[in-house]
Design goal:
Largest sheet: 3 strands, antiparallel
Protein name: alpha-1,2-Mannosidase
Number of helices: 18
Radius of gyration: 25 Å
Biased composition (Basic and acidic residues): 483-508
Binding site for Ca(2+): 440
Number of strands: 23
Strand order of the largest sheet: 5-6-7
GO cellular component, one term: membrane
Pfam families: Glyco_hydro_47
Helix content: 40-55%
Length: 540
């Protein structure tokens, strides 16, 4: 564990010294480069790792730096997928952990706060990408101008199905359903377009919903779609998402699994197209452990571990029948997936083999990729040549999962015996009780936080009943309560949510039906008066 901590600081300090405010460190030349959009990405990605390592003072300093220095109003073409998992995910996680890190939080936290506002601003920049006939997003968006006119409509499956964790969290915390709605629509569009044998391909046209790359597997281009069906189901307690995954899981076992390896097959016929293991597939045993399929997970994990031992890392592609690397795919960019699976499986089994993988990973990375200015991507595992890049996921994921593998008492592993009670405008709420859901960039989301910022419908009805009673006593004549015009709508425009709560109110209050119902913006009652200043009656 202490060696992992030292690895983190060797990389992190050199990033600050040589590369900040660029996105990433170039460790061979000791300078920086922008890669995913010019957000000081490594800093956002490493923020929650600082807290997991126990460094609250640096966490607090970085929160201030990000608030002052990061601007999303820039003329940059950004990957919708990468911006979501790294920037939105990193900011949401840091926002939810900020009280634990000793940051002085706003009165309405976790339902408000500067990092939450930044996450929302970044996510809003991505929304234009979802405006397609299918609801599946474009892969790239310009942060200032939206989708470029000539943008390709072809997006990979993972780039469509990897939003529900971050976007549902945003919707629950901010009260704006648009984020969760677009994420769900995209997930369901993929589900609707699966093949007759239950598989999805690799790339699809988001305008026509035609599959462009028809290879089906669990690796690159598809991976985090399956991951987010499971994690979305756990985070939101959503049976529909889980049943979608379990259907896919059957098809994956039927068509792609051979001797505890997973191959690539043609999505319509199920015939093998590539007998290849990709390093990105190594997340799969960890995902299997989340649904309780630990025996199968361990068997597949041990296959992958033999590849690691052969090369001291996982090559991007590994030809299973030949037992060797694939031409031009011999590199290892310090990816976390095998270590991630080891961390999950160790929590499930306590099998010491998993700690051995962790130790091997520390030894390999230190021996092969450590340089004076950080840790460099391994360009070729056969001769250990290096590349001048240190991806931000090295500090966000690889180091974090290694540290958590060796730190059984970390707060992330909390079993619920310890928790904080926070008072929000919506009542008391329990936080930091464990059960964290990691997004696909290893940013932990506290699922309990999703229940902090919503009034229960019954409370809403209670308040509306009280208001009706108050008015019926005050005046016998009929009146209505008007809502301030909202974004150019007419003054009587209503939210769908208001309409449904009104119907419920009518059912429960048939005696008072002579009085028209309130139609206020959907926010906590005490802010309704604060926003509107006063309640207006008819003819006043």
């Amino acid at each position: 564990r202490e060696r992992v901590r030292a690895m983190f600081y060797h990389a992190y300090e050199h990033y600050l010294e040589s590369a900040f405010p660029y996105d990433e460190l170039r460790p061979l030349t000791c300078d920086g480069q922008d890669t995913w959009g010019s957000f000081s990405l490594t800093l956002i990605d490493a923020l929650d790792t600082l807290l997991i390592l126990g460094n609250v003072s640096e966490f607090q300093r970085v929160v201030n730096v990000l608030q002052e220095g990061v601007d999303f109003d820039i003329d940059v073409n950004a990957s919708v997928f990468e911006t979501n998992i790294r920037v939105v995910g990193g900011l949401l996680s840091a926002h939810l952990l900020s009280r634990k890190a000793g940051v002085e939080v706003e009165a309405g936290w976790p339902c408000s706060g500067p990092l939450l506002r930044m996450a929302e601003e970044a996510a809003r920049k991505l929304l234009p990408a979802f405006q397609t006939p299918t609801g599946m997003p474009y892969g790239t968006v310009n942060l200032l101008h939206g989708v470029n006119p000539g943008e390709t409509p072809v997006t990979c499956t993972a780039g469509i199905g990897t939003f529900i964790v971050e976007f549902a969290t945003l919707s629950h915390l901010t009260g704006d359903p648009v984020f969760e709605d677009v994420a769900r629509k995209a997930l369901k569009a993929l589900w609707k377009n699966r093949s007759d044998i239950g598989l999805v391909g690799n790339h699809i046209d988001v305008i026509t919903a035609k599959w462009v790359a028809q290879d089906a597997g669990i690796g690159a281009g598809v991976d985090s779609y399956f991951e987010y069906l499971v994690k979305g189901a756990i985070l939101l307690q959503d049976k529909e998402l889980m049943s979608m995954f379990l259907e896919y899981n059957k098809a994956i076992k039927n068509y792609t699994k051979f001797d505890d390896w997973y191959l690539w097959v043609q999505m319509y016929k199920g015939t093998v197209s590539m007998p290849v293991f990709q390093s990105l597939e190594a997340y799969w045993p960890g995902l299997q452990s989340l649904i309780g399929d630990v025996d199968n997970a361990m068997r597949t994990f041990l296959n992958y571990y033999t590849v690691w031992k052969q090369f001291g890392g996982l090559p991007e592609f590994y030809n299973i029948p030949q037992g060797y690397t694939v031409d031009k795919r011999e590199g290892y960019p310090l990816r976390p997936e095998l270590i991630e699976s080891a961390m999950y499986l160790y929590r499930a089994t306590r099998d010491p083999t998993l700690l051995e993988l962790g130790r091997d990973a520390v030894e390999s990375i230190e021996k092969i990729s450590k340089v004076d200015c950080g840790f460099a991507t391994i360009k070729d595992l056969r001769d250990h040549r290096l590349d001048n890049r240190m991806e931000s996921f090295f500090l966000a994921e690889t180091v974090k999962y290694l540290y958590l593998l060796f730190d059984p008492d970390n707060f992330i592993h909390n079993d619920g015996s310890d928790f904080d009670v926070v008072v929000t405008p919506y009542g008391e709420c329990v936080l930091n009780a464990g059960g964290y859901i990691f997004n696909t960039e290893a940013h932990p989301i506290d699922p309990a936080a999703l229940h902090c910022c919503r009034k229960r419908k019954e409370e809403q009805w209670e308040v509306e009943d009280l208001m009706r009673e108050f008015y019926s006593r005050k005046k016998t004549k009929k009146f209505t309560v008007k809502r301030a015009p909202d974004h150019g709508e007419g003054e009587n425009a209503k939210d769908p949510e208001d309409a449904s709560s009104e119907k419920a109110g009518e059912r429960r209050n048939s005696k008072k039906s002579s009085h028209s119902l309130l139609s206020c913006p959907s926010q906590s009652f005490n802010s309704k008066l604060a926003v509107l200043g006063q309640v207006f009656l008819d003819n006043t």
